[in-house]
Batch of 3 targets.
Target 1
Amino acid sequence: MMSQNSFINPFRYVAGTRALVIGLAGMLLTAIIAWNSKTHFDGVLDAHFGMEAPLSLFIIEGVISWLCAVVCFYVAGMTLTRSSVRIVDIAGTIAFARLPMIFVALVGFFVSGTPVNIEDIDTSFIVAGVVGMLFTIWMVTWMYQAYIISSNLKGAKGIISFIVTLIVAEVVSKLLFSLDYYDSFNQLNIN
């Protein structure tokens, strides 16, 4: 039976392969909703609204964001702990931790697009940003729990390494997404 603590740390109840299957299904659902709401997850922590693209791009964005986090957290865990760190635990719990992004994708239905100028910012964009940030904080909370449980890191070492690794994962994902992938995707004509 799950308690209120499962909203903060669901990984006492789900991990490994089960978390991976649920997380990947959630990532696919998020991509489908994001495709319909035009919400892009082009970074481990990023969401942007308003650009139409094929469904395959939304799926690839989710996979790249997830893989960047998985690789970075796995390397950090392997480097910083003497405990056994299983890739399936990191991959599964990080995929599961992305479930709150479903709600960010739903928020995209209420946003007309990303403002180009400050004058274009309207109330719906501000509300969507605040709501999206709350769900992103929830995801980061779960990612932290996923990392410390999967790598058996505690205390300051766990907190500091999580923050540094999350920043590295975000930078790596943004570098990958900066490779002009929208234009490359359109040139490949993938639908």
Target 2
Amino acid sequence: ATTGTVKKKYPSQEYLKSILDYNPETGIFTWKPRKREMFKTERAFKTWNSRFSGVKAGSVHYPCGVDSVSYIVIRIKNKSLKAHRLAFLYMDGSIPCEIDHDDGCGTNNKWLNINPSNRVHNSRNLGISRRNKSGATGVTWDKKLNKWHAKIINKHIGYFADIEDAKRARKSAEVLMGFNKNHGEKRR
């Protein structure tokens, strides 16, 4: 279930469609030719259309550094806007508060890869932490018991002598709790 939509700072769907094309199969935005009345001078009009018309829009943005999840950002009227939000506006006319990239790749904005979401659902499609030592989300070594401990959302699943049994138990719990099939996978 989703909650609310985002409206602030985003252009109207009509304006967005007048300046950009979106290909739902590739997830790529391209700039459309602009009309003369959008520019102060004839020179600016010709320069913009010769440089940008038909060109892929946006650039990769790393909000927390190069090792973080990256997104495509497109500048419209001096505002940096995330392409996955623009895809929803373009296709649906609204922008969900949260958007989940099914494959975990923030730059893959194919229409079938992005879904309206909420904070809980989005957290059930995270990649494995770089700090993880077991190779499986929710599986840690318990030194006192000398066993692998499997848990999910701070709930105990069990202790296991074999790490593979702990991993299977964790994956089974993920399925029962509605986690995305890609949760806990290594990303990039």
Target 3
Amino acid sequence: MRSLRILYFLLFFSLFFSPDSFSQLRKIHSEDADPENEIVSMSFYSASEGFVAFKKWIGYTADSGRTFNKKFIRIDNVDYGTYPVNLTLGFGISSIKAFDKNNIVISGDYGFVPSILTSTDGGSTFKLSYHSQLNPMVITDGVRDMIFPSGNTGFAADPDRVLKTSDGGKTWAPVFTRQGSGFTNIVAPDNQHIFVFSTEYGLAHLFKSADGGSTWNTVLLPEISDKRIIYSY
């Protein structure tokens, strides 16, 4: 009986985990020289063209990610406007949206203050379009996630708020505030229906808007101790 079980196991493994099952996957780019420069986000506007946000730079690609034209966010290529910015740690990248080769939006933080940058020249220069913290006395994190469901309308989430833009990221305004929520992810299948939630332990809550962010309701979740949302889509 034991030998029969082993035979069944080997047959199952060969059918579902054979090398052929991975034949469609291939590595096209690797940061071997800097393994800590992991990919944090990507946005493609065609099958081959788009931008990939790494931890230390953003890269434009025209060959589906095989090679990149590196663009760095430096102190001297950002227009900060009137915002008082802590430049000690530089800009921490969290997500990116590319409308085309020139127009991109990048979210993240300056000194843990939620911040959003825009560029109209493909990442050669940037403009700080949003820089705000709900409570300056509490250190939280930056804009953790950002999504543009359709056109120029987009939504972003920092630990305490949901932000909305209607002009492709040039201006942003809070549409939902809940201090201490630890928001990490935002999902929007269209411009009207938006979900925001936290994947942190002890902060398992999910909120939904069905009117483009004007009003928000709590989505009831199962009562499970030490529950944690992994993802929602």
